[in-house]
Specification:
heterotrimer, A mainly alpha (267), B mainly alpha (254), C alpha/beta (260), B: mainly alpha, MetI-like fold, 11 helices, C: alpha/beta, 10 strands, 25% strand
Chain lengths: 267, 254, 260
């Protein structure tokens, strides 16, 4: 049992890419082009700023409201990191437990797979009814969304260890604990790191949706409130900043991954 | 033949079934036994009761959610496959669009829900757009991967027969990419449901997402869990439908 | 040795004249083939042998019209090569059968592409499969076949169009030694029966000597011809011929050409 039958909705694209000057220049040019197109479309077509403000207006909004946005961003980021951390640890430990006991696996794994087709965001209103508006509900929501992909990926890694490596270690009379630490765990690291990246990605979604439903803090709150006041520039600013946060978290994880899984080619 | 296969898989999964039944029994026993208020901490039996007691309300909103999901999904499949095929064919398009796609894939598109409701109104359009936006990227990516992943020897062989571009696409490229495309479809269908639900929650007007909001705000948790159950079954059914279609179309994969 | 096979010599079928191939742009170019010339009469089985990376596959692809020629000319049937020709059949190292088609559908694939008469060719396809011993597998899917069987299907597929020129790029390299011997015998049988013009790439010296009427040895990159020998062993050849001194003399000469 290596790759699970249920797919991972938020897995990151792994397309082969050219790693030369072209790879950095062309994207930069493309983004610049998109920004310019946006600007000209809005000014030439005289789109009302309530509908779609130009990039300049969004930039102004960010600068003017930087206090509000910074506070919101910190709140959201803190919750994202917390939820991710808890989900990663709990998910990994669960996967470890499952990998050790085949009976536990047969009992529990089908349910873990099944949760992947359930829209767990729908839990948001339910959790708020039970736990009230506030960080706790959001953390639980994000945790529930992020926990299962972590289990699946970690389990795939732990169970996918090359059996000949394990046999070799056994031939040296290594203890099971040694085999776990020196063979299975390192072999599982690429999948575990993949899992962590996916977990972080969906934790962001959990926190944001949580903030939409229970608007007490965070960038989600900024987005909801600014749409109510028709301050579209601020709304877009909020969306941009959340995206930037998501990219930041993932970028950091990529760097960490390159150091931890240093032996993988093409990373 | 199918019945024995089904029976086999049933008996093989008995530990999971036993666990499930045990948990259900424990849940039922605890909530009833401790005399917990059924509106806040409903027993499974109460959840099922709510399901049937409010069936008409549930169905009216469920129908809306269902067809928005399917519409968003189908749109994402069609456009996703077209775009995925296009970017895998032309190097320049690939180099320019790939980084955009990566950024957009990583971005939490659910965050766009309020903006979409502002632009497209609180009705079905905004929800189908969100479902489309979230579900569309895995289709593009998986199609591109599938097309690009064509065995180079197969490509050389087909070229050596000097077959036309259309023949090449229909007889070689497309069948070869189908495996990846179906993997993408399984992902997309799940994401469509999420998109619709989030948009319904934010729009707060109708659909199962809204109904969930409504029921939870009145602390009718039995009904809320019943709605969640319906959503879970819907997600599962869609996924199963794609998986079934895959076994029919991709008959050569075991 | 008396040559017991009559080879048709009514003019060359394939003419390669001073052909060279360079990859890459001016500053950063790789000269793959420097200057290669030979003529191939109709019905002759030619093997091209050389070290890995010397450009033998490149040469084959140029004859097939799948790669452009940098300099020189290649003519097949008197016409310069301008692209892939339907009168050629190309076989690659891996079977490249389409997994979604049955064995029979795979063999008939070229007929489909050429928009030929599938019904008329079906009997021919089954006959080819019979010759390969695979008639019982005609409705199976490729994944149910072993490597050797799949490569045999690939050979049937190459023959269904009754090609004038058969181009084979190390078709047996991916097979195990025993299957390889079987395939060599089979290919020889087919050649006895159909007498196609064949260009066969291999890095097995013994395979080349066993199968061919003629062997060309290429040097390492940039490739030139270092040996062009006629193999004068009687046909049909059995595996036992590989133990004869004449056979080993040819092998030694080829090995010398490769600098070993």
């Amino acid at each position: 049992m290596n790759t699970p039958a249920v797919p991972q909705p938020r897995a990151l694209p792994n397309l082969p890419r050219s790693t030369n000057a072209r790879a950095t220049i062309i994207p930069a040019v493309v983004f610049l082009a998109i920004g310019l197109a946006w600007h000209f479309a809005v000014t030439l077509l005289k789109v009302p700023p309530i509908v779609l403000p130009g990039p300049a207006a969004v930039f102004d909004a960010i600068v003017e409201q930087r206090g509000l946005l910074l506070e919101a961003a910190i709140s959201t980021l803190t919750e994202i990191v917390l939820a991710t951390a808890i989900a990663v640890v709990a998910g990994f430990l669960t996967a470890l437990a499952i990998s050790i006991s085949p009976m536990v696996r047969r009992m529990v794994f089908p349910y873990i797979l099944m949760t992947q087709v359930v829209p767990k965001v729908a839990l948001a209103p339910i959790l708020i009814a039970w736990f009230g508006i506030g960080m706790q509900s959001r953390l639980i929501l994000a945790f529930l969304i992020a926990y299962f992909p972590m289990v699946i990926n970690s389990l795939a890694g732990l169970l996918g260890t090359n059996e000949s490596s394990v046999r070799y270690a056994r031939s040296l009379a290594a203890s099971e604990l040694q085999i776990l630490l020196k063979v299975r765990f390192p072999a599982a690291l690429p999948s575990i790191m993949s899992g962590i990246k996916i977990t972080a990605g969906v934790a962001v979604i959990g926190i944001v949706v949580g903030e939409f439903v229970a608007t007490d803090r965070g960038l989600g709150k900024v987005i909801i409130e600014s749409t109510a006041t028709m301050d579209t520039a601020l709304t877009i600013a909020g969306v941009v900043i959340i995206s930037a946060l998501g990219l930041l978290v993932l970028g950091a994880l990529e760097v960490i991954e390159r150091h931890i899984v240093y032996w993988q080619p093409g990373r | 033949m199918n019945m024995t296969r089904l029976a086999e898989r049933f008996t093989a999964s008995w530990p999971a079934i036993v666990l499930g039944l045990a948990l259900l029994a424990a849940w039922e026993g605890l909530t009833r036994g401790l005399g917990l208020p059924q509106n806040l901490y409903p027993a499974p039996s109460h959840v099922i009761w709510s399901l049937f007691a409010r069936a008409d309300l549930l169905l009216a909103h469920a129908w809306l959610t269902f067809y928005q999901t399917v519409a968003g999904f189908l749109l994402s499949v069609v456009i996703g496959i077209l775009l995925g095929w296009a970017i895998s064919k032309w190097r320049l398009l690939f180099d320019s669009l790939y980084p955009v796609i990566v950024v957009l894939q990583v971005m939490p598109k659910e965050a766009l829900a309020p903006l979409l409701v502002l632009w497209f109104g609180a009705g079905t359009l905004s929800r189908m757009v969100l479902a489309f936006l979230i579900a569309f990227f895995p289709m593009v990516i998986n199609t591109a991967l599938g097309v690009r992943g064509l065995n180079p020897n197969m490509r050389s062989y087909a070229t050596s027969l000097s077959c036309s571009k259309w023949q090449f696409f229909t007889k070689v490229e497309f069948p070869s990419a189908l495996t990846s495309i179906f993997a993408g479809m399984k992902i997309s269908v799940t994401l469509s449901v999420i998109g619709v639900v989030v948009a319904e929650i934010v729009a707060g007007r109708d659909g199962l997402g809204y109904l969930l909001l409504f029921a939870s705000s009145r602390l009718d948790m039995g009904f809320s869990l019943a709605i969640l159950l319906v959503l879970a079954l819907w997600g599962g059914a869609l996924f199963a439908a794609i998986a079934w279609l895959e076994t029919r179309l991709l008959f050569w994969r075991h | 040795m008396v040559n017991t096979r009559a080879v048709d010599r009514t003019g060359a079928h394939v003419t390669v004249n001073d052909v060279s191939k360079t990859y890459g742009l001016r500053g950063d170019s790789v000269e793959s083939i420097r200057s290669v010339s030979f003529e191939l009469p109709q019905g002759e089985f030619l093997s091209i042998v050389g070290p890995s990376g010397c450009g033998k596959s490149t040469l084959l692809m140029m004859v097939a019209g799948l790669l452009p020629i940098t300099a020189g000319t290649i003519k097949v049937g008197g016409q310069p090569v301008a692209g892939p020709r339907r009168e050629n059949s190309v076989m690659f190292q891996t079977p490249t059968l389409f997994p979604w088609r049955t064995v029979l559908e795979n063999v008939l694939f070229p007929i489909e592409v050429f928009k030929g008469d599938l019904g008329a060719h079906k009997a021919e396809a089954i006959k080819l499969l019979e010759m390969a011993g695979l008639q019982d597998f005609k409705d199976r899917l490729p994944e149910q076949l072993s490597g050797g069987m799949a490569q045999r299907v690939s050979l049937c597929r190459a023959l269904i169009t009754n090609p004038e020129l058969l181009l084979m790029d190390e078709p047996f390299s991916a097979l195990d030694a025993l299957t390889r011997d079987d395939m060599s015998l089979e290919l020889q049988r087919i050649q006895e029966r159909f007498r196609k013009t064949v260009v066969f790439i291999t890095h097995s010296i013994r395979e080349a000597v066993f199968l061919s009427d003629r062997v060309i040895v290429l040097s390492p990159r940039p490739a030139v011809i270092v040996r062009d020998l006629t193999i004068d062993l009687p046909r049909p050849r059995t595996l036992a011929v590989q133990e004869t001194p004449e056979f080993n003399r040819y092998c030694a000469e080829i090995r010398a050409g490769l600098g070993r």
